[in-house]
Amino acid sequence: MTGGSRGIGRAIAERFAAAGHKVATTSRSGEAPTGVLGVECDVTDAGQVDAAFAQVEQANGPVEVLIANAGITKDTLVLRMSDEDWQSVIDTNLTGSFRVAKRAVRPMIRNRFGRIIFISSVVGMLGSAGQVNYAASKTGLVGLARSLAREVGSRGVTANVVAPGFIETDMTAVLSDELVAEYKKQIPLGRLGAVDDVTAAVEFLASDSAGYITGAQIPVDGGIGMGH
User: Fold this and answer.
1) Catalytic one among 16, 53, 134, 166?
2) Within-domain flag for 92
3) Judging by DSSP bridges, how do beta strands 114-119 and 157-164 pair with one another?
4) Which bin fits 7, alpha (ψ -120 to 50), beta or left (φ > 0)?
5) What are phi and psi for residue 81, nearest 5 degrees?
6) What CA–CA distance (Å, rounded) separates 190 from 181?
7) Which end of the chain offers a freer environment for a tag, N or C, measured as fewer CB atoms within 10 Å?
8) Of 51, 6, 13, which is closest to residue 41 (Cα–Cα)?
9) DSSP label at 95?
10) Is residue 27 domain-resident?
């Protein structure tokens, strides 16, 4: 999986490793949880992506489940957003996901089995002031997954999207109590989500039980994005 050094990505890696899977994560630092193969990789560099896959395949065998989680934010209002602010987020969040999916899918087709899971965001459907770059990148993952699902479904490969909402992580921990209370008012379940809520959805989509689910966007957002 990409983006596995911290936050939700790290928790996903830990969950899969605890379940007995051979897990490898990529990040720019190469840091990974204990028991997980950590590979240094910048997903905006096609050469690094190919080299990272080769390293993982040599250590763990063919990649059967790909979780594309690497993502960054560069938030600012559109009138202040530079071309670099826009392009760097698109390059990492959307183009990076395309690169790793393209590299993973050929062996999956050959083996007639594969699970590709893109980590999006409720922001991709709802929009968010100051995040036109991030929201566009996360919405793009839905079109990427659904088109890919149509291309490779006949070969036993699924492609799905998990769209978390407001989840209790280091990023939300710095928000003020007032802002968190305001978010909770908008969430039908009345609370922020837990990291385990997201990891459970990802684990399900990677399982045999989800073999007939493809092209789906699974919201893990307490209901805030319903209808989108």
Assistant:
1) 134
2) yes
3) parallel
4) left
5) -75, 125
6) 9
7) C
8) 51
9) I
10) no
Helix 96-111 and helix 46-60, axial crossing angle in degrees, nearest 10:
40
Question: How many residues comprise the chain?
Answer: 228
The tokens for 69 are: 């989680």
pLDDT digits (tens, 9 = 90+) for 166-218: 998 876 777 788 888 988 999 999 999 999 999 999 999 999 999 999 999 99
Measured over the CA atoms of residue 168, residue 171, residue 172 and residue 176, the dihedral's sign is positive
CATH number of the domain at 161, please: 3.40.50.720
Measured distance CA(121)–CA(142) in Å, rounded: 10
Q: Which two tokens stand for residue 167?
A: 């989840």
Q: Is residue 22 part of a domain?
A: no
160: closest CA among 176, 144, 183, 136? 144
Ramachandran class of 227: left when φ > 0, alpha when ψ lies in -120 to 50, beta otherwise: left
Sign of CA dihedral 167, 168, 173, 177: positive
Beta bridge partners of 163: 219
195 in any annotated domain: yes
Tokens 């928000």 locate to 175
Pairwise CA distance, residues 70 & 90, whole Å:
11
Q: Is 134 annotated in the active site?
A: yes
